Amino acid sequence: MKFLNPSMDFRTVTPEEMKKVAATEALKLVRDGMILGIGTGSTVNYFIDALKDLIAQGVRIRGVATSIDSSERARAAGVNVEEDYAGTVDLDVDGTDEMDGSGNLVKGGGGALLREKIVAYNSRNVCIIADESKFKENGIGTFRIPVEVLPYLNQMTRNQVEKIGGICIFRENGKYRTDNGNMVMDCDFGIIKDPPEMERKIKMIPGVIEVGLFANLATMAIVAGQDGVRTVNFKNFSP
Question: Looking at 72, 82, 98, 116, which residue is catalytic?
């Protein structure tokens, strides 16, 4: 674990300011000519907006966005957003709803879990930016696990997910739709002892499109808190 900016006084920093600090640190990883994965959420919005300054300095960036909202925001910042990129993403910068010390994540509070996982899976490096409230030393699962499901026979899918221990609620009473036209269930499994196994079990259920458990995908995290901003490495960063 490496602390950054140790001279800064973070004792009075608000959660929103923590998000901005983490996003600003992630900018240091961006290089000219990169294919950049652009996540979704309030923390990533700070990162996207800050890309405008890099682009103004002449840094060339192509991006693959994980939501319609992030795509529009990135284009406004001057990023050349690819709609159907077939190669490998150099660096994916995204947020998280929860994260444990092994880099297992809960994502999908913003509904972009399917696109976020596609981009993360196809990235050389995945950098998670977050404020300290997202880091859970005792394990993830306090935040309900989002599960994207096909609308067709969705109650059947819900029943099957509940059979493996979840208590599931359809987001917005079933009215919510993702950018892909699917529904989201928010599922309470309690603290999850084996995130990779739980991810596998949920994804095996027909009707489940994707699950908001991200196991073994994060390369590193930049976490801002009252003690400062630090990096946590889960894998070797590969330029």
Answer: 116
